[in-house]
Amino acid sequence: MDATRVHETAFVGPGVALGAGVVVGPFAVLLGPATVGDHVWVGPGVHLGGAPEMSSERRNRAWDGDLDHHAVVVGEHTVLRDGVVVHHGSWRPTTIGSHCQLFSRAYVAHDVVVGDRVTLSAGVSIGGHATVRDGANLGLNVSVHQRRSVGALAMVGMGTPVTRDVPPFVQAYGSPVRVHALNAVGLRRAGVDDDDLGRLAGLLRADGVAGIAGVAGVESGPGGTGWHDQTIRRELHWWHTLPDRMPARLAGAPAVVPS
Q: Which Pfam families match (predicted)?
């Protein structure tokens, strides 16, 4: 039941470590260094590895035995559907978390970090150095600009160009990308209770630029007891300490005109 199966037409190069129960489909190409966790499903035509798409990178290094560069890492129980492409990192491993779903033709560029339980729908493209946090859901053909971030349990609507950072726990869509509401369905599925949903809604209304208001309101709730959902506290702390943050604005908020 835990046997790893590699189709006869697939190519698994040197430096690729496959976990237990991995399935590698027809014409998939896996180039080292790469680590694929237990029970990962690699569909037909998937390409893991290969040089980052950067003009300074040597194109053929993965084919001539050069393994002295950053890897691709895929966590356990992740599904990579037909034609998914994930490139090696240039300064850190390109990482896909556990229990993720990457649907047909999703593209993950060099140095991207994708968290656990993330859904990348068909045709999603993630630019280099970007971050997608745990539980985020990106709709069909979403494009994330390099070095931008999508917060945990955020839902990004189909076709959205993510040229600004999307805060955690929200619905964001449109061009330019705007924050429209809490992702209440996703939050409830993740076990967030109604009390914390109400608090998040209040923070969202209070902050028309960053999408979710200041971390001071998160660290201590009524009576100074703090929020009981540690995931919320952790992710809002991440959001407000994110370096070079360029937040998506709340829908309906006026544009900020540089002076």
A: Acetyltransf_11, Hexapep
